[in-house]
């Protein structure tokens, strides 16, 4: 900050000086060139600081083929390979929407990227392991935790809307043609700050009159705690998982989740929990605890994603008793190189009679977290179904299907080469996984939630 960097939160647009919390940790995400330099000098093992996930793939590939800093297409290919395999078995059938396509979920294999000198590569896995590697599983992982089709890295920008995916054999998928352009002028910085203190409780309400029971319990609990207004923030969720005419005791439960934040740790400490516990036999009928404490009175960690001018970044490689400076590509004065994918041509939207089906019978999804935001990629299996998806699933339609995200700013991106759309939901995860109160704090299940929705589609798409 003293050097002029404001560390503006890329989700909120605010400088770090307005954060209001103490910084706990901070790191810049480094790229791959120190890894290549170490391997060039004979290193067998390279111990890295916080490099990007894909850097551990780009570095060895750049060493193997002696790529230069401006071999952007080849580097983009290696970046894509790194993005695909960085989450292990998740590109080998793990978390894959179409579970009926996966031969076995036992002993799911881990991925292998066989990279060629031009940056194209084949993803495969060891023989006699479970899971599946297919164009579908690779598409799913390409859509994971991204925003725009231009995927940024300190060494190169990979344009995911340019690449080609093809099945070339059992559990072998080739990815080629990914175009690359000059890296961005900034490096990403991860800052974690110490937020407010949090505690809460999850109560199961059972039987009839759930909403009335929730209202009575909330009035009682905040009276017992000394008032709702004493807390800096209160979040209440009533999750109606109860069913009519249930077939088991568990099917009669609804979950009431109450979370309180305070800058005063005493207000959400041991006494907070004691005041809740003493209500167990003095409140509405059919209540029971799930047994989990939501925060336990500890401080939250508030994630603060920011950028730093790459001209202020220097890496230091320590090897054989020497320290070597490694400058990022942005400091080498190379000519700027950019790439823009021309608009794609799509098949006509199918017409004819329509029928009702569930979204997930036609479309796959993959969702995840990006700091305080979440993404959800959606892909189709055929050109015709993608033509329908492209026209049907607008941002407004997504908000209609999922009213719980209607309040958020959502961006839609198109990857027609993958028959895919990507939705970027801003602010849904607040300040990151450790500071929000969602059951699924990383939005990993959001895609499967969409796949349950009923939609009207042309009948011919189901034949």
Describe this structure in words.
This protein has 463 residues and is α+β, with helices and mostly antiparallel strands. The chain has three domains: 16-190 and 304-331, no CATH class; 196-299, Ferrodoxin-fold anticodon-binding domain (Alpha-Beta Plaits), CATH 3.30.70.380; 354-462, no CATH class. 19% of the residues lie in helices and 30% in strands. It contains nine helices and 21 strands. The protein has helices spanning 33-40, 55-65, 72-85, 135-142, 210-225, 270-277, 383-392, 395-401, 446-450, and strands spanning 22-28, 111-115, 121-125, 150-152, 157-159, 164-169, 172-176, 179-181, 186-206, 233-239, 253-262, 288-293, 299-309, 315-319, 322-326, 354-358, 363-370, 373-380, 410-415, 420-425, 454-458. Strands 1, 9, 10, 11, 12 and 13 form a six-stranded antiparallel beta sheet that branches. It has a four-stranded antiparallel beta sheet with strand order 2-3-7-6, with helices on one face. A four-stranded antiparallel beta sheet has the order 17-18-20-19. A hairpin with a 5-residue loop joins β2 and β3 (121-125). α1 crosses α2 and α2 (55-65) crosses α3 (72-85). The longest helix has 16 residues, at 210-225. The protein is globular. The mean pLDDT is 96.
């Amino acid at each position: 900050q003293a050097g002029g960097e404001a560390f503006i939160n890329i989700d909120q647009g605010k400088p770090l000086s307005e954060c209001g919390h103490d910084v706990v940790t901070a790191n810049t995400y480094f790229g791959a060139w120190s890894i290549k330099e170490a391997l060039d000098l004979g290193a067998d093992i390279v111990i890295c600081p916080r490099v990007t996930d894909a850097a551990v793939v780009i570095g060895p590939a750049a060493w193997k083929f002696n790529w230069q800093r401006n071999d952007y297409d080849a580097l983009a290919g290696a970046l894509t390979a790194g993005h695909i395999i960085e989450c292990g078995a998740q590109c080998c059938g793990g978390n894959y929407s179409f579970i009926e396509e996966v031969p076995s979920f036992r002993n799911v294999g881990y991925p292998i990227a066989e990279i060629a000198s031009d940056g194209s590569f084949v993803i495969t896995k060891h023989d006699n392991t479970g899971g599946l590697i297919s164009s579908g599983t690779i598409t799913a992982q390409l859509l994971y935790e991204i925003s725009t089709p231009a995927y940024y890295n300190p060494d190169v920008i990979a344009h995911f809307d340019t690449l080609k995916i093809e099945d070339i054999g059992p559990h072998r998928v080739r990815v080629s043609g990914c175009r690359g352009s000059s890296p961005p002028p900034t490096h990403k910085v991860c800052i974690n700050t110490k937020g407010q203190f949090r505690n809460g409780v999850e109560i199961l309400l059972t039987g009839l009159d759930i909403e009335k029971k929730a209202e009575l319990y909330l009035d009682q609990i905040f009276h017992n705690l000394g008032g709702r207004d004493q807390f800096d923030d209160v979040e209440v969720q009533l999750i109606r998982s109860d069913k009519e005419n249930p077939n088991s005791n568990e099917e009669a439960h609804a979950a009431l989740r109450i979370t309180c934040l305070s800058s005063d740790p005493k207000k959400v400490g041991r006494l907070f929990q004691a005041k809740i516990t003493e209500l167990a036999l003095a409140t509405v009928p059919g209540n029971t605890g799930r047994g989990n404490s939501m925060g336990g009175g500890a401080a939250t960690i508030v994630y603060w994603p920011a950028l730093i001018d790459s001209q202020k970044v220097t890496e230091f490689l320590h090897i054989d008793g020497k320290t070597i400076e490694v400058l990022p590509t942005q400091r080498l004065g190379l000519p700027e190189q950019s790439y823009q994918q021309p608009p794609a041509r799509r098949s006509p939207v199918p017409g004819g009679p329509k029928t009702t089906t569930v979204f997930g019978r036609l479309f796959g999804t993959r969702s995840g977290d990006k700091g305080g935001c979440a993404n959800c990629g959606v892909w189709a299996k055929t050109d015709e179904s993608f033509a329908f998806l492209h026209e049907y699933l607008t941002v407004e339609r997504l908000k209609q299907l999922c009213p719980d995200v209607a309040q958020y700013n959502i961006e839609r991106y198109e990857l027609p080469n993958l028959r895919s759309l990507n939705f970027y939901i801003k602010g849904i995860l607040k300040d990151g996984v450790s500071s929000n109160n969602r059951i699924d704090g990383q939005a990993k299940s959001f895609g499967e939630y969409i796949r349950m929705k009923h939609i009207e589609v042309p009948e011919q798409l189901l034949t």
